[in-house]
Write a structure and sequence with these properties.
D-Maltodextrin-Binding Protein, domain 2; 17% strand; globular; 10 helices
Amino acid sequence: MARARRLPPLNGLRAFEATGRHLSFTKAAEELNVTQTAVSHQIKGLEEQLGLKLFHRSPGRVELTREGRLLLPGLTEAFDRMTQAVEDVRPASGNRPLIVSVTPAFGSKWLAGRLGRFWCQHPEVELIIQHTMNLVDLTRDEVDVAVRFGDGDWPGLVSEKLVAKDMVPICSPALLEGAHPLREPADLKHHTLLHEDDQEDWVEWLRIAGVTDIDPRRGPVVDDLSTLARLAMDGAGVAIAPLNMMEEELKSGRLVQPFDVSLPQEAGYHLVYLPGMEKDPRVAAFRDFLFAEAVEAS
């Protein structure tokens, strides 16, 4: 009779392996799509079950113990072999869905209105769009390509800038009239400033516009772009937002751009994938479609 395998819980082993590979609880949590606290608890449980310490922990630093260094290579090899075994039995790529990971803002404000055209052009490609704020690991997660926001520097990945993120003020057309109509940037002193993520975009935009007598940090911060746009449409204030994410609202007239001054940014939305994935016909079709749409919108 074969001897039963006696292994600790798989979640604990995965948490240890990811943390040991990155030497970071934070990066391991991002890779595994769980909280840093969850990773820490799983590793603590693994250490208790094994009766030994796997990491030396100090503020801002994580190091493997001797036992941790002995355990890590075998686990990494095992997880890599399991990943390859699963890939070996998957259907050929042409018969599998194309799984795309995007941020909620990009998915709802830029991609959603264009997907219908992709399906008409490529009915042979079954597309699955996953919306998440977590940074997916394309080497381990079941994701083929992703759209990420940043400067494009992701080691080991092909990164192609798809959409720039020039920031502009947007507001309800009602704010162009009334007791304090928006005619020039200085008129913003009469209106609430709405911020996405933080106040730094308004700080820089007002500097470029030459306005010095307005506190750029006043007003609420809203970390959801759709909510920010809704507040602006309702006349709650003047938002600063990515121009290319507001196409639908600006074309319909629900929002207007009161000033012809934009804040260019180096960062933007990038299409990222593992080297060689561009040879996959599904990826090539989706990539070509996205860049054709980006050129059309520019």
